[in-house]
Specification:
With 340 residues, the protein is α/β, with parallel strands linked by helices. It has 15 helices and 10 strands. It binds 1,4-dihydronicotinamide adenine dinucleotide (NAI) and 1,3-dihydroxyacetonephosphate. Belongs to the NAD-dependent glycerol-3-phosphate dehydrogenase family.
């Protein structure tokens, strides 16, 4: 039976014209969240079938079983989506962000905020997604929305807390206030890089957590991996200038807690299949796959000790098995517990 997405705020949509780029699970869920927060929502999906489905009030490919509340204006015309927008949410996968922004560039109203909702690092260049926005759209302030938030939970209107970050504290606070609704609580943060890195790297450890579970290594191994993984996340974050306390928050620790413990996470599910030796072809998007390889390269280049990230990258490129990775991690020279 279909479950009707709940409506949060009762306010008439006197709000912003919000343009959502991306008609997948997260783009559609955020479009619903923006409707509930009182905004007018246009959504760009490149696939006409997705547009037709959203017009019918569903997105069965990406959000099966969820009925969309009316109000999302979907189109495959990116210019029409962006025309007159007050704010843009970029919700295509990290490795597609550059292409999405290139398509948006000529139609982007100057000065309006671009809110990154994808989680990853560009695998070819090692660029953070915010750097790609600043390169392609230098006239648009960049913000990031991140934190523990499964698209299906948000689409169903279940209580969720996220963080909205921008370098300009006032912009972050304004966006957080405008995006919040009864069941979406948005905190603000001026540590753009910290919030971005937390979301990008947690996916790598979600894959590792899934692999540990899939290989039947036990709950103790799982806890050890997530804890030591969090140390690696903070080391890489520090190298990019993230504030340590940011990574203790929703984007970072919060998202690790969620995605390292739930088969609802596509990254965890990907790792689970890896650990069980099951086929990987055809699995849904797992952003941690391309990000693991580039994060491992960044760690090597910057001389950051990140053995779990290196192990995930090596498992994914087929150099070692999950079992071999675990043996290598367990037999590293003993050392003092350093947590930074
Ligand atoms: N699904 C979730 O629960 C959450 C996802 N995210 C992040 O949001 C991002 C998107 O994820 P999902 O929407 O879940 O993925 P998805 O796989 O459900 O959908 C991705 C959508 O992007 C479209 N797309 C891909 N390349 C494109 C391009 N070049 N131009 C236009 N459209 C393109 C696809 O056609 C598809 O509609 C990822 O970085 C993910 O980590 C963040 C929080 C929650
Ligand atoms: O980022 C997410 C929840 O915060 C979604 O995680 P997955 O992409 O692993 O499903």
């Amino acid at each position: 039976m279909n479950e009707v997405a709940m409506s949060g705020k009762d306010t008439a949509p006197s709000g912003w014209r919000v343009a959502v780029l991306g008609g997948g699970a997260w783009g559609t869920a955020l479009a619903l969240a923006m409707l509930r927060a009182g905004h007018f929502v246009r959504l760009y999906a490149r696939d006409p079938e997705t547009v037709a489905a959203i017009d019918r009030g569903e997105n069965p490919r990406y959000l099966p079983g969820i009925t969309l509340q009316p109000g999302i204006v979907a189109t495959s015309n990116i210019q029409a989506t962006l025309d007159g927008a007050d704010c843009v949410l970029a919700v295509t996968p990290a490795q597609s962000l550059r292409a999405t922004l290139a398509a948006a560039k000529d139609h982007m109203p100057a000065g309006i905020p671009l809110v990154l909702c994808a989680k990853g690092i560009e695998s070819e260049t090692g660029a953070l997604l915010s750097a790609i926005v600043e390169e392609i759209l230098p006239l648009n302030p960049v913000a990031v929305l991140s934190g523990p938030s499964f698209a299906t939970d948000v689409a169903r209107g279940l209580p969720t807390a996220v963080v909205v970050a921008a370098r300009d504290e006032a912009l972050a606070a304004d966006l957080a206030a405008r995006f919040s609704a009864e069941n979406l609580r948005c905190y603000s943060n001026d540590d753009l890089i910290g919030v971005e890195i937390g979301g990008a790297l947690k996916n790598v450890f979600a894959i590792a957590a899934g692999a540990v579970t899939g290989a039947g290594l036990g709950a103790s191994a799982q806890a050890a991996m997530v804890t030591r993984g969090f140390v690696e996340l903070r080391r890489i974050g520090a190298a990019f200038g993230a504030r340590p306390e940011t990574l203790m928050g929703l984007s970072g620790l919060g998202d690790l807690l969620l995605t390292c413990s739930s088969t609802q996470s596509r990254n965890f599910a990907y790792g689970l299949a890896l650990g069980q030796g099951k086929p990987l072809a055809g699995l849904p998007l797992a952003e941690g796959v391309p990000t693991a390889a580039i994060a491992a390269r960044i760690a090597t280049e910057r001389n950051i000790d990140a053995p779990i990230i290196a192990a995930v990258a090596a498992i994914l490129d087929g150099t070692i098995t999950v079992r071999q990775a675990v043996t290598a991690l367990m037999t590293r020279p003993l050392k003092t517990e350093t947590n930074d």
